[in-house]
Amino acid sequence: MSAGAVRLEWREIGNEIQRVNGEVIEEAFVTLYLNGHELVTVMATPLQLDALGLGFLTNEGLIMGMDAIDHVHISQASCCVDIWTRHAVAIPERRVITSGCGGGVTFIDQELGIDPLHSDVRVNADRLHEIFNLLQGAESLYARARGVHTSGVTDGEHILAVAEDVGRHNTVDKVAGLCLQKGIPTEGRMLLTTGRISSEMLTKAARMGCSIVASRNSPTSMSVELAEELHITLIGYVRRTSMRVYTHVERVN
Question: What is the pLDDT of residues 23-36, one digit of tens each?
């Protein structure tokens, strides 16, 4: 079973050359099968693969909940995720290669439309800084190996679920899948992420019902437009003493 990182040796060059034994984040091809049909192959860190598959199907609008799932099987080599549903699911034909490292894939058609999120959830700016500090703790993959993205779902007080992966898109799918498995509602919650917020990530957040999306990184122009239309508060560049609120600032105090 994967530990999420691979131990190896490198040379550290500074004032002197040192031999260092440490870890680098693991990256692998992972193929998702739906009812025996190959759906998509992504580059991912081979951890929480059941959550990755379930979250991907949920965020793509292919399933509505765990009631739709018959069983999930992960291959021994952690390279294949087989998900079987209780009823037939139509597989979309149009695939979109998403932006960013790893070349994620989405079936979402931005023109299909998602209902705007009308939520009275609010967040205190100081508390948001504090919650972000909890996202990557001492036991995280990030602390061990760096080179990894993290996403989490929070109610504004506690982090309810967290996921790490080499791909920022994968972290959103994984955290959605974890919430699905644990019966944690995501509607009206906040999605925190360390990666850039692109349009497909914003759309996944909207599918989850997260009315506040915040990142340590930047949004794209299309994600800002979508956030405005979908009534999502979009926050970027969350730093120690500052942040940028791009849309629906009324939810931040």
Answer: 999 999 999 999 99
